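wait is this the right file?? whatever heres the structure
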């Protein structure tokens, strides 16, 4: 039985937020590690993996009710949509595509190499968008 449209949209937004949070925390952890703040880095990395678990759980719920083809269609729609020019929306866009590609690689073994390559590409685009966020003075004081 497919999810209702409001539930479906809510789950999509949660997935996108968890994807963004995962990479935001992971990249922040790396930044702390680079300056020798290992305790802060470890704490952020642990939080990043909690967000990863949330994102996976949400996507699995969508797959359970709407099927993997639905998720693949959503992924293709996101890939073909216009990339937001402003931050932090651009970061969220790339983080979502990164997470979706990784999770699709786990589910679609026949296309795993393709999805892994796409995930790698979106990871790097996310990293650049994260740096752009920092360079823009985000978060505002």
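ok assuming it is, sequence goes like this
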């Amino acid at each position: 039985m497919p999810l209702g449209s409001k539930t479906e949209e809510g789950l999509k937004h949660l997935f996108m937020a968890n994807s963004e949070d995962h990479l935001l925390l992971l990249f922040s952890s790396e930044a702390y590690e680079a300056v020798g703040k290992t305790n802060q880095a470890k704490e952020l990395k642990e939080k990043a993996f909690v967000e990863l678990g949330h994102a996976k759980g949400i996507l699995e719920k969508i797959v359970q009710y709407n099927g993997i083809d639905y998720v693949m269609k959503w992924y293709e729609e996101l890939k073909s949509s216009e990339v937001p020019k402003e931050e932090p929306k651009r970061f969220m866009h790339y983080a979502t595509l990164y997470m979706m590609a990784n999770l699709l690689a786990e589910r679609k073994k026949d296309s795993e190499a393709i999805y892994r390559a796409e995930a790698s590409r979106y990871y790097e685009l996310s990293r650049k968008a994260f740096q752009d966020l920092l360079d823009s003075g985000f978060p505002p004081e």
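The chain has a mean pLDDT of 93. so i think its the right one actually
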